[in-house]
Specification:
CATH superfamily: RNA polymerase sigma factor, region 2, helix turn helix motif
Largest sheet: none
Pfam families: Sigma70_r2, Sigma70_r4_2
GO biological process, one term: response to stress
Order of helices and strands: HHHHHHHH
Structural class: mainly alpha
Protein name: RNA polymerase sigma factor
Family: Belongs to the sigma-70 factor family. ECF subfamily.
Low-confidence stretches: 1-12, 14-19
Organism: Streptomyces parvus
Mean pLDDT: 80
CATH class: Mainly Alpha
Shape: elongated
């Protein structure tokens, strides 16, 4: 694990002579790329530091920072200045992206532990080795799915539950379970291919 670049969060107050929040907010809402670049310069280090502290990995923190600002750009129409400051909105997006990364990391670790445990009991002939590789590939692909799709498909594959049983167990409407199953299978197919 690498050491943090900064031990103290960066100062996010505007430098003298830079546009204020109102100008940046309006630029964001108007789709002004120059204003968005200023937003990145102003809050990028804060987002990166948050991600690094939560994940402990510089590369993952860089990925999260990129996801936060791509998400902010794409979701700019949903930003409401009357509900909170621009910085708070970006921090909220960062927290969600960090939580998603931690959930995915936990899922991958859990799935690798299951695969390793299952593989430990096999005598490793060619057919068994191929089965282990297939299982690891499927588990890895499954871990890349959104949480709800992952949950539904895991219940189907590993617990043998029907969609109706999953609906009862999770409290999701049956139509939602079916949608998660269909979308999850499509994504799983594309990831495996």
């Amino acid at each position: 694990m690498s050491t943090p670049i900064r031990s103290v969060p960066p100062d996010v107050s505007p430098a003298p002579g830079t546009p204020g929040d109102d100008h940046l907010v309006q630029g964001l809402l108007d789709g002004d790329e120059v204003a968005f670049a200023a937003i990145y310069r102003r809050w990028g280090a804060l987002v990166h530091t948050m991600a690094w502290r939560a994940l402990g990995d510089t590369h993952e923190a860089e990925d999260i920072t990129q996801l936060v600002f791509v998400g902010a750009w794409r979701g700019r129409a949903g930003y409401r200045p009357d509900r909170g400051s621009l910085g708070a909105w970006l921090v909220g997006i960062a927290r969600r992206k960090i939580a998603d990364a931690l959930t995915a990391r936990t899922s991958r670790t859990r799935l690798m532990e299951i695969a390793a445990r299952d593989a430990g009991g096999l005598r490793h002939g060619p057919a068994e080795a191929e089965a282990i590789v297939d299982r690891v590939l499927v588990l890895d692909a499954l871990s890349r799915l959104p949480v709800h799709q992952q949950t539904v498909l895991s219940m189907i594959f590993y617990e043998g539950l029907t969609q109706a049983e999953i609906s009862v167990r999770t409290g999701m409407p049956l139509g939602t379970v079916k949608s998660h199953c269909r979308r999850g299978m499509n994504r799983l197919r594309s990831v495996i291919e």
